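Example complex used in Figure S2.
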Amino acid sequence: MKVKDTLIVVVGPTASGKSELAVKIAKKVDGEIISADSRQIYKGLDIGSGKVPGRWVNIKRGAKNKKVFLYKNIPHYLIDEASPRTQYSVAKFQKNARGTIADIFKRGKTPIICGGTGHWVDAVVFGQALPEVKPDSKLRAKLSHLTTPNLYKLLQNLDPARASEIDSQNPRRLVRALEIVMSTGKPVPKSGDKLKIYQNFDKLQIKWIGLNPGMAVLEKKIKRRLQARFKEGMLQEVETLHKNGLSWKKLESFGLEYKFCALYLQKKISKTEMELLLYTAIRQYSKRQMTWWKRNPNIKWFGDAKKAL
RNA sequence: GGGUCGGUUGUGGAGCGGUCAAACACUGGAGACUGUAAAUCUCCCGGCUUUAUGCCUUCACAGGUUCGAAUCCUGUCCGGCCCA
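Predicted assembly (309 residues):
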């Protein structure tokens, strides 16, 4: 595996074994890992998000000391990056990840993006320009009173180009598009518009590695992993997060493990229901992930991690 | 054994004489994706086909009433509850 000027990207559905594969690849190519996971980005979401059990340690980089999250002696970045009380976003991730990748190259190592959040991975790799418009809760509240067809009509008036591409039945997308247009007074950037900075990615060789053992195996792994997580104290983790000030509503919004554990801890569902509903939701999620990646023809898929090395 | 309520598409569950291949929800399948992405959204889901304001089969089973029955009646089978 030639490593110079190569960015390795490891993707796959949840429970496929991406994280361990990424570590093995890192050892082989002298790499460092950038986690692309919309839940592992938050502090305290550990067991439920499947964060690798690494540790924060001080390491020397030149003259400076730096705190790095190490797992099996491989640095992992963009883990524990934000408080779960705040809201992280693709745009932040894009910026941070690109900066981190540049830094890894500077030190002569190979960056490996590994994660299950397809939108985040693609934002980094393809560098789609994302408008610098922060969420405006007041505007969103106002717009939320409009019906979906009316939101769409409004967007058609303000930004016909975006309106022609957008999913006209998805109110969340419509509101976001309107937010951009109304705040900047300009249309939403076209799809394909690249970021102005960090354009150096164009020269990179990108090596896409997909790991997918298939649904039958995945189902077994999801079940087994779920039992392991309960044993490790996942319910306690969720309870602690709540005691430390995260509302049930917020925990539910994190989805999957956090959502169904929160519902159970509030006694809104039984233990049996929790286990069944959670399993089903994870399974559905893994399918949605695959739908995202299926359209990327550059991914080389492997059923078995050993063969991917 | 007596009474009673029920048996509808994978599941739950509407419909209670004609406009019923069968609402709706869930599961399942396919897909979308420009700062919530573990989110949000779309389509399909009895069979067939020219995928349609199309054809066929259907509402536990067997009979019956009726111009017409998933819907009413009788019996049988199965299940819940109550009384013995």
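The beta strands of chain A are 6-11, 31-35, 55-61, 64-71, 74-77, 110-114, 205-211, 300-302. Chain A has a mean pLDDT of 90.
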